[in-house]
Amino acid sequence: MELRANDSKRKSWVEVDKNSDFPIQNLPFGVGKTSSREPRVLVAIGNHALDLHALRDLGFLSELSFGEEDFLSSNLNKMMAKGKLQIRELRNRISDILEANNPELRDSADLNSVLLEQKDIDMLLPVIVRDYTDFYSSKEHATNVGTMFRDPDNALLPNWLHLPVGYHGRASSIVVSGVPVKRPHGQQNPNDSQPVFGPSKLLDFELEMAFVTFEGKKMGESISVEEAEDYIFGMCIFNDWSARDIQKWEYVPLGPFLAKNFASSISPWIVTLDALEPFRVQGPTQEPEVLPYLKSEGKKNIDIDLEVYIEPDGGSENKVCHSNFKHMYWNMAQQLAHHSVNGCNIGLGDMMASGTISGPEPSSYGSMLELSWRGTKPLKLEDGSERKFIQDGDSVIMRAYADNGSTRIGFGEVSSKVLPAD
Fold first, then answer.
1. What domains are there in the chain, each with its CATH number?
2. pLDDT at position 166 over 80
3. Cis link prior to 164 (omega < 30° from 0)?
4. Residue 398 pLDDT
5. What's the mean per-residue pLDDT of the chain?
6. For a tag on the chain, would you pick the N or C end, based on fewer CB atoms within 10 A?
7. Looking at the annotation, which residues are catalytic?
């Protein structure tokens, strides 16, 4: 099926700034409510959003197979259950409705009931996250961490170049942008002697992207690399909050636990994989050669610029990181194929995060652990203060966008303020 919505020459009758994250070529899905409207499915266009329930109710989507319950919902899961091809049809139809020369909605008396201003919308967690997995797929990040904590000459563990390392996280503590995060308590052993209990002193962000899945195969069956992208609905920005002092003490032998499961923050708009087609690039060369079930052909990485800002309480934004999703050593298709190769069933609304996305330069490191190099190189902010890790009152803001010169596809932002521990 053609991707009419991706036509770089298309313009919308809705005014869209040239630097907007949400041109007619994007059309990401989200869920929101207003003072007068209960939660419903929305599509972003410029500074506005289309109310898909209202659009359907007025007959603009009558040729599609979506029902009222698919759009008058507090999550995208029911709509996603229709599958990739029907979502593609929906996105194409919305693009046609918004196209500059199409008057059917533009000149309709019902326009104001369909087109909402984003500033009036309270965005909600877009999906019911059935299950959540976090990968560890940036070679630069894994090398940095291994250099700091192990042997610089053997920074990567023996399995790292052979499989996408991951762990199962906590779906219940995934929250949408704007929800504050409280500094967690836990055990720490700062002097390598006797453990102590208290608030984490080394709170960190992790710059990640995540993808959301359609319904997968039944338990006992696997998804191949070749078909993996048919099971991916779209992507969002993902901040995997981490308490480094708690993590250091607990992670041996079974890996992250309380250091990670207290909160993860995501951006509210899900950008479809279809919208990101024009930004595909070749991934890094994988050496040694991977096993056959992980062999990946074609352009499976995506060129997405990523930025992180720290905003002190009452202060201004300070850009501390500029990385790119194209640096990922293990791509999404490989991650999903590896996740299911043992017969693990993938469900509707599963969320899989990339792991920290660090690039080759120090300014592209995707965590404070790396940016401050374990606290030995504090970052200086515009107000003169320094940061080794995240302080109470700080807001961490992440933004992501793909731009090929003719089209810009953005993800909006995920912003979260850190509250002090009780």
1. 4-123 (2.30.30.230), 132-419 (3.90.850.10)
2. yes
3. no
4. 99
5. 97
6. C
7. 141
CA pair distance 213, 130, nearest whole angstrom: 10
Calculate mean pLDDT across residues 396-419. Answer: 98
**Are 41 and 55 within 8 A, CB to CB?**
no
pLDDT tens-digit readout, 274-332: 999 999 999 999 999 999 999 999 999 999 999 999 999 999 999 999 999 999 999 99
What's the rounded mean pLDDT across residues 83-94? 97
The number of beta carbons lying within 10 Å of the beta carbon of residue 52 is 24
Rounded alpha-carbon distances, angstroms, from residue 38 to 33, 43, 161: 5, 16, 48
Contact in structure between 207 and 236 (CB atoms under 8 Å): no
Q: How many CB atoms lie within 10 A of CB 213?
A: 24
CA dihedral defined by 278, 142, 266, 282, rounded to 10 degrees?
10
Helix/strand/coil (H/E/C) assignment for every residue in the chain: CCCHHHCCCCCECCCCCCCCCCCCCCCCEEEEECCCCCCEEEEEECCEEEEHHHHHHCCCCCCCCCCHHHHCCCCCHHHHCCCHHHHHHHHHHHHHHHECCCHHHHCCCCHHHHEEEHHHCEECCCCCCCCEEEECCCHHHHHHHHHHHCCHHHCCCCCCCCCCCEEECCHHHEEECCCCEECCEEEECCCCCCCEEEECCCEECEEEEEEEECCCCCCCCCCCCCCHHHHEEEEEEEECCEEHHHHHHHCCCCCCCCCCCCCEEECCCEEECHHHHHHEECCCCCCCCCCHHHCCCCCCEECCEEEEEEECCCCCCEEEEEEEHHHCCCCHHHHHHHHHCCCCCCCCCCEEECCCCCCCCHHHCCEHHHHCCCCCCCEECCCCCEECCCCCCCEEEEEEEEECCCCEEEEEEEEEEEECCC
**Encoded amino acid at 323, one letter:** S
